[in-house]
Specification:
The chain is 23% helix and 37% strand. It is α+β, with helices and mostly antiparallel strands. The longest helix is centred in the N-terminal third of the chain and has 7 residues, at 29-35. It is globular and about 35 Å long.
Length: 125
C-alpha cells in the first residue's frame, strides 16, 4: 500500500501533514506493520518549542520500543490524548485518528525538506 501523498515523511517513519501553518505528526503504516501491536505511546514534549530532529516521545509494541521524532521547528500546540489513552488507535488508523502531536510551523521550508511519499515508499518497501 502506498503512503498517502498529502504529507511528508522522515526516515524514522513519522509522517507530517501541513494544514494552515500547523503540522500534524504521526507514524506511518509501514512503521505500524513493523512494530505490530502497539501497546503504549508516550509524548514527553506536550508543549513549548520543538526543533527538527528532537525526540518528542516514544512508541512501544510487543516487539520493540522506538523514539518518535519531529521533522520541523515550531511550537507544540496539541497532543492526541485519545491515542495516549488508547494506543491501539495507531494500529487501527495511523493516518487520521492515530495522529500524535500538532506543531505550529516556524518555517515552511522545513516541511519541504521532508521526504515526499514516493521517495519514502521507495526507501521502505
Amino acid at each position: 500500500m502506498a503512503s498517502p501523498d498529502d504529507r511528508r515523511y522522515l526516515e524514522t517513519h513519522e509522517w507530517h501533514r501541513l494544514e494552515d501553518g500547523v503540522v500534524t505528526i504521526g507514524v506511518s503504516r509501514f512503521a505500524v506493520e513493523e512494530l505490530t501491536d502497539i501497546t503504549y505511546v508516550e509524548v514527553r514534549k506536550s508543549e513549548g518549542t520543538i526543533k527538527a530532529g528532537d525526540a518528542f516521545g516514544e512508541i512501544e509494541s510487543v516487539k520493540a520500543t522506538s523514539e518518535l521524532y519531529c521533522g520541523v521547528d515550531g511550537e507544540v500546540v496539541a497532543v492526541n490524548q485519545e491515542v495516549l489513552d488508547n494506543p491501539a488507535l495507531v494500529n487501527e488508523d495511523p493516518y487520521e485518528r492515530g495522529w500524535l502531536i500538532k506543531v505550529e510551523l516556524d518555517d515552511p521550508s522545513d516541511y519541504e525538506r521532508l521526504l515526499a511519499a514516493a521517495e519514502y515508499d521507495r526507501k521502505h518497501r
